Every structure is written in structure tokens, then in C-alpha cells.
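Thread title: Can someone regenerate the structure for this chain?

I was given the following input by a collaborator and told the matching C-alpha cells would be attached. They weren't. Posting the sequence so someone can regenerate them.
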Amino acid sequence: MASYSILVVDDEPELRELIQLVLTGAGHTVIGAADGVEAAQAVATHAFDIVMTDLIMPERDGLEFIAEVRNKYPNVRIIAMSGGGHIARDSYLRIAQGFGAHAILEKPFENREVFAAIESALAKSS
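Best answer:
Regenerated them for you:
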């Protein structure tokens, strides 16, 4: 796999840091953000190939962030992640795909699923 610039957005610091560690170990350049507000600031100042975002977060949710990225940065690949909430997690993930996510990850997931989602997202056209 080639090296990519990746933004990981999740309000759970342990998960965000673990994903960052795994992706950095695989040779990618990775920046983390705790919510949609931090993520919006990051995409405005860095060029990312891939954005991995949780859907349910404080301040600004992942669906709103996905819509913004698709509108302003159409070449960025988006991977939506969710462990659910008030509705089933697969419902949130289907909604995220409708908003423009290129791939989805159901929490909890394994490292191999992260890499498979990256490959899947990169294989899809805008």
C-alpha cells in the first residue's frame, strides 16, 4: 500500500490514538481530531487523501462533516465509522454513504478491516 495523508476523527481518544498508531506504523502520515469542529479546521489547513470519521460526536457530528468535505474537497476519500447510538449502527453507516462516504467501518473493528476500508475508499471514484 502506498503512503497516504490521513485524518482520523473520533471523540474517543484511545480509539483515535490507536488508529493513528496503526496507520503511522504502516507508513502513513496521520493527524487526529476529536470532533467535527477540529476536523474542519484540519482539512482547511492540510491536504488529506483520506478522512476517517466517527459519526456520533459532540460539537459537530460526522454526517455534517462528511457533507462539508464532499462539497469543499471532492477528491478526498471518506471512511465513516460508527458503533451506533440511538439507532442501529448500520443505519448510521448507510446514511453516511448517502452523504458521500466511500467506505464504512462498524465499531469495533480489526486492523485488517481498517486497511480494507482504505483500499475500498481509494478504489471508488468521486
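The two ends are 20 Å apart (CA to CA).
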